[in-house]
Amino acid sequence: MRSHHPLFFTLSSIFFPIFFVIFTFHHTTSSTTLIRDTCKRCSDTDPNLSYNFCTTSLESSPDSRRCQDLHGLGLLSMNLTKQNVTSTRNFIKHLLKNKKKKLDPYVKECLSDCMELYRDAILSIKDAMKDFKDQAYDDANIAASLVTDASTTCEDGFKEKENVVSPLTKRNNDTFQLTAISLSIINMLN
Ligand SMILES: *[C@@H]1O[C@H](CO)[C@@H](O)[C@H](O)[C@H]1NC(C)=O
Ligand SMILES: *[C@@H]1O[C@H](CO)[C@@H](O)[C@H](O)[C@H]1NC(C)=O
Ligand SMILES: *[C@@H]1O[C@H](CO)[C@@H](O)[C@H](O)[C@H]1NC(C)=O
Ligand SMILES: *[C@@H]1O[C@H](CO)[C@@H](O)[C@H](O)[C@H]1NC(C)=O
Which residues are listed as membrane-spanning (predicted)? Predict the structure, then answer.
């Protein structure tokens, strides 16, 4: 058995936490810098994308600290999109099933269309992630664009009739913005 001088334990109990803090801090700052630089580039090239939305949504994810590069950040944005579209699909399902709240027949029709669009969007974002992991960036672009189209087609349906308010405006916009981030990153890597 090798025995350490008592000073070793004293020193390591002091230094280990310090190294740990520095290491964690370094990781957090480097992913924050990566996110800000990437969001700046994305919002500069796509006027539809808000810089603040981009940084807020990526930084708020607990997975973001593990993002070391653009590829990781691309996956993170698609992960967030997948959660978003799944949640929206469930929300629409809930609206359509809710018997207590009588829906306007036109709104109901739009919601049914959106339900189908979002159901397909879940499959598309999964495809996009798989293609992205395989570095098949053209295919990833096509699949992610389908998700963007789902959000705009859904929202446009409500606009076709006057005095109809879409209950999905914020959700559609969130999905639109998230896929704009993904598409920008896909195009940077392609
Ligand atoms: C911005 O959004 C509008 C409306 O959805 C769309 O027509 C246009 O192509 C978008 N621009 C870019 C650069 O994506
Ligand atoms: C969708 O994503 C945005 C950005 O990350 C987030 O602010 C919003 O809460 C999400 N919406 C849902 C319904 O998950
Ligand atoms: C994507 O999400 C899953 C489950 O939420 C998580 O396990 C995985 O680490 C995430 N990947 C990235 C790149 O954020
Ligand atoms: C969509 O969201 C972005 C970012 O939050 C915001 O700047 C923009 O005004 C929203 N657009 C619509 C049509 O709500």
Answer: 7-26
